[in-house]
Amino acid sequence: MCRWAAWIGKPIFLEEIISRPDHSLIAQSRRAEECKTAINADGFGVAWYAHRAEPGLYRDVHPAWSDSNLAALAGQVRSPLFLVHVRASTGSAISRNNCHPFAVGRWSFMHNGQVGGFDQCRKLADMAIPDDLYGDRRGATDSEALFLRSIGYGLDKAPIAAMERAVMEMQKLSERFGSTPHLRCSAAYSDGQQLYAVRYASDDCAPTLYYRHCPKRCGYMVVSEPLDEMRESWQEVPQGRVLTFGATGVTSAPFLPDASRRAGGMVSTQYAT
Amino acid sequence: MCRWAAWIGKPIFLEEIISRPDHSLIAQSRRAEECKTAINADGFGVAWYAHRAEPGLYRDVHPAWSDSNLAALAGQVRSPLFLVHVRASTGSAISRNNCHPFAVGRWSFMHNGQVGGFDQCRKLADMAIPDDLYGDRRGATDSEALFLRSIGYGLDKAPIAAMERAVMEMQKLSERFGSTPHLRCSAAYSDGQQLYAVRYASDDCAPTLYYRHCPKRCGYMVVSEPLDEMRESWQEVPQGRVLTFGATGVTSAPFLPDASRRAGGMVSTQYAT
Amino acid sequence: MCRWAAWIGKPIFLEEIISRPDHSLIAQSRRAEECKTAINADGFGVAWYAHRAEPGLYRDVHPAWSDSNLAALAGQVRSPLFLVHVRASTGSAISRNNCHPFAVGRWSFMHNGQVGGFDQCRKLADMAIPDDLYGDRRGATDSEALFLRSIGYGLDKAPIAAMERAVMEMQKLSERFGSTPHLRCSAAYSDGQQLYAVRYASDDCAPTLYYRHCPKRCGYMVVSEPLDEMRESWQEVPQGRVLTFGATGVTSAPFLPDASRRAGGMVSTQYAT
Amino acid sequence: MCRWAAWIGKPIFLEEIISRPDHSLIAQSRRAEECKTAINADGFGVAWYAHRAEPGLYRDVHPAWSDSNLAALAGQVRSPLFLVHVRASTGSAISRNNCHPFAVGRWSFMHNGQVGGFDQCRKLADMAIPDDLYGDRRGATDSEALFLRSIGYGLDKAPIAAMERAVMEMQKLSERFGSTPHLRCSAAYSDGQQLYAVRYASDDCAPTLYYRHCPKRCGYMVVSEPLDEMRESWQEVPQGRVLTFGATGVTSAPFLPDASRRAGGMVSTQYAT
């Protein structure tokens, strides 16, 4: 089922998320507590923004806990915005191309959840990927297809609406050709400037999503599962919401992949930094 | 560009092809002599038939020369029919799923050559894969797409005609959307009973193909490049031919992907065992 | 802490141990039940005897559950005697050379347990390896050192006494320079003719060891943890015993690494096949 | 035989050495021109200094040219001092632990060359590693042993003399137990402040060593083989010399592992920056 975590704020070492906390992402790769699969050892990945518009992308198929290269990267690289993921496969092969995060241009994306019965609709999902993005379709995951679809829908211009449309398209595919649960999604994505986090499901059992403001380190941790026991410091994100983290703080809005969302206006709540 | 070799006959150790000859496939992975890329170190694979109808498939992304597991397999496994391949990527990523041979059911397939400008027509090629075979599309190579297309065209019932149709379809795709050279192909495929070897190109520069009858070991070696210096013992296969190796020996027929081939009759030459 | 299983008898597919049983070794790599580490995902390995005196050896650092090559091998290779192991590292790096089984000449060996505080005595353990065997010291595990020491003590001529001496040497090293628990051992080793299984500990907390006679398949399964729920069909081996499985069935004898064992006679019990 | 390159100066992207030059290190992994082995595809590694006293260390067994993670790292990480290496094994196994550079504390080291007949003296070389450093002996290469020996001889206090002593010790081991050529060495090592480069051989056939001052990028490239065709801009280092690169420029001194060197004084030449 996967676990993930992200940071946005002043630059910190990647290890502040990957390995140092009591229940770090590496700890969660061995023993997650809030997801169906306790073990998330089918690969891992990091996308980090530093000196360039495009993120660096480091992914491998080993369990995160035993990769000395990941430990080296985590201990040396500082970044103001990065996404980290540990994977439990929901069907597709163990291969670097099937590990998260995915990156296209300046966008990066990672996902915990699934498109139900994706095997039955993968071909249609692939067909729906815009021609000019098909070269970026390197693996076979539902997650990568969802990401490419959202770019095709205009992630650059409308980062939330584009993701809503892509999610709805995948959900409809699953409703038509797949199986329940049709769509479950706790995801994070970024263009290197802002970080978006979505929690949504077609059946209201969306994977968990939390965030915490870190005043000392001047930034936000956004996670699928808290990185430590200080539960009261983690804000749980309700289902059907999308958070936008940026220089001015965090805003929350409904995430409504169905048509009514796009017809109506956006409701947003500004949280002080 | 790749190098490959196959065996059909009495069971022999895989190493008789993989490592023991003077210019074995492992030697060719370091320094091939009859292909554009001297180094073929972007992965390797073995498909071997033994106790089951479906072949075993062992593939990895390391150079063949340094893989201790391949050496172990080669030294221990005996098979009456197997395909071995060392890869030089023509564009797609280094991943187990992009290594040859490919296997679906009892069929296995490996290829040296390319579909010209495949990146521009990969999406169309993927869309042409029959729905019931799309689950077997795990990588992004032109070779895997060609193989799946040929299965869709009825490799079971017409192993040569189906491959002709698939080759022509890929050639046309390249002619329309890709680039020259449109199609080059030195390939081998098998259902575990017979072994087929094809040499064809759209521009008459097909990669090389040879075979040798081995009376002592009671079988045939079929290779893209001879495994030793005894050149006179290797028969070069002309372009535009397909060989069928089976229990009764080897037959040769024209390989004509264009329409006239299917309209006309089959010319075959029987070689004594 | 590791889990392992072995077979001796008529040839069977490796998968009969590796993947097919309800609580197969692959299942145990995800969730073992009788050992400290539920997850054993720091590598795996198979040593199998077939057509040659020396075994084939296939090892890798991935979790066993996700390795397609292991699945292929298991489904295709038949052997009358093989050892399979899934690893949970007790300190040394994740590397093929640190995965079990180990093989030297016709001998193979795998181990569940540890030499307490091995880091403090590794150098001394390495120095004790006979000069002519040092070339086979490729990793850094206590297990490999124990194995090489036992070969040095004459595994060929006295397969039980040599292992007793090696175990005692390692135990003394740990008592002098290491830490408690000094030595815990549930191990299996073979020369391709017989299979030996040892259960011993310096503190009487030896890792578990079981075996089962399989009359239909004409052989014995020897395991660190039963492969299914039919508990009554598995014989638990008491601590301080060594079993010898061969063509005439199984014998049990005390395993006494301390000096008194070698001074006295051997007690053995013959079990009917 | 290996190829390597290093940088010291103002921070630059790792790719300025690894991939961007016409004959970059990745190009040399495919086709080196000034060494016995044209192909250096038995692994690669990077040690880079950034925010910490200890370097980051990224190593893997794949050919450098096909590793997407290396490409990501190279394109994102900037460092004022880093070492990069592509490996052609001289005997020891393909394993991350056998890839260069090696790192202990703040020291990093990489080597092109060999200790002749090291297999015959590896045990003695291992025994000579100081006890408190034996935990850092993770692989089986002559290079790692040489490095650990030099640390034991006081690299911290006398970075050149300690390396001379270690080199002489390994040379004597080879003279006594190994084979010719006894010692060949083109190596670089650093403590994160200065960069040392040595060219030495027992038989006067030392692997090549060059450096170039880069005024625009404010630093020095130090390489086993020039990274481009502008030969006149590369200074070849004579055999038997050690260069020290630091904040004040580069100094050259004799590298004399034999006893007379340590008995006499140090001759050094200061080159202007």
> What is the string of SSEs of chain A from the N terminus onward?
EHHEEHEEEHHHEEEEEEEHE
Summed over residues and divided by their number, the pLDDT of chain A gives a mean of 91
Oligomeric status of the shown chains?
A: homotetramer
Strand order of the largest sheet of chain A: 3-2-4-1-10-9-11
Low-confidence stretches of chain A: 263-273
Counting helices, strands and paired strands, the structural category of chain A is alpha+beta
Strand content of chain A: 25-35%
Q: Could you give a short account of the major beta sheet of chain A?
A: 7 strands, antiparallel
Reconstruct the topology from this structure.
The structure is a homotetramer of 273-residue chains.
Chain A: E1 3-13, H1 15-18, H2 25-30, E2 44-49, E3 56-60, H3 68-76, E4 78-86, E5 102-104, E6 107-115, H4 118-127, H5 142-152, H6 159-177, E7 183-190, E8 195-201, E9 210-214, E10 219-223, E11 235-236, E12 241-246, E13 249-254, H7 259-263, E14 269-271
Antiparallel strand pairs in A: 1-4, 1-10, 2-3, 2-4, 5-6, 6-7, 7-8, 8-12, 9-10, 9-11, 12-13, 13-14
